[in-house]
Structure formats: structure tokens, C-alpha cells
Design brief:
Helices cover 52% and strands 4% of the residues. It has 189 residues and is mainly alpha-helical. It has a two-stranded antiparallel ribbon. Pfam families: HIPIP. This is High potential iron-sulfur proteins family profile domain-containing protein. GO terms for molecular function: 4 iron, 4 sulfur cluster binding; electron transfer activity; metal ion binding.
Amino acid sequence: MTRFGRTRRRFLQLAGSGTVVGFAGCLGGDGEQETETETETTTTTEEEEEHEEELPEGVSEEEFEHGPVPEEYRTALSQADEERVTDELFPKEDVKFQEASDAVEAELAQEGQNCGNCAQFIRDKNGDGFGACARVEGYIGADDWCSLWEPIPEEETATETETETETETETAGEGGEETEEEGGDAYSM
């Protein structure tokens, strides 16, 4: 029995080692994993190159993300006539800043919401294809989005309301004056 026990034990050791070595051979080293890694690296590099191509000439990645923006944006008003206060700007990371299409896909934004139609957006003023924001630091594209997005107040509605109010005031004033004059004439007689 001792001999059988040793032979059996030796067999199990060899079989276990063979299984481990066989498994290790199946799990890696066949070249496919290296190809996938190279592909991922290449993809990342292409994305970085595409992003670098988008940067305005002479602007570093740091400046693009965090500013400062060109002088014409520092003093410009947003589409809702809000002033840009440099000391009170939010970092892009804090406001979920991203491409509008990605925000829609992530269900953070509705279709059609982007910086180009946000009240805080300051449109391109120097021809580099980017604007700025009254509340977020760095360069901003019209096709971007952040959690601070708000619609531009409708000027037509405000203008119509003001015009109606002015017309009502004038009409009331005219009517009141006529009444007073008529009343004055009636008492004079």
C-alpha cells in the first residue's frame, strides 16, 4: 500500500502540474492579447492627435482646459449679457463638461442642448472656432455641454411684453387725459 500511495500521490502531483501548465499556455502568450493592446494604444494615440488638432494655434492643452482665454473673451458678455468673472469660474471637471453628443448619450442632456445655445456661452470672437463661458474656465466649443447649461432667454417674448406694457400705459394715459379734459370742460361750462 505504501508503494501504491506514493505512486498515486506522484500521479496526482504530475497531473496537477500538467493542468496548471496547460492552463497557463491557454491563457496568454499566443500573440492576440499583444495585438489588442497595440490597437488600444494606437486608438488612444489617434484620439489624442485629433484633440491636439482641435487646439487653437499656439494654445497648450493646459491653457485650452483651464485658461486663460484670449483678452476679447475676458471682458465679453455671454449670450444672456452676463459678465465673465475670472475668479469665480468653475473647472470643467466640476460641471461634467463634455461633448454635447456624449452628454445626450449618457442621458445628462437632452438632444439639442449644447454650449452654442446656452445663455452662458460667449461666441467665437477671434476666428479660432472656440468661444468661452461666463461660468466655466478654458476654451469652449459650441458643440460642448456642461451641467450649468441654461437656455437663452427669448428676447422676442421679452420685447413683445415690454411693447404691450408700453402700449397699455400710453393708451391708459391718453384715455385718462381725455377724460380729465372732458371732465374739466364739463365743469367749466
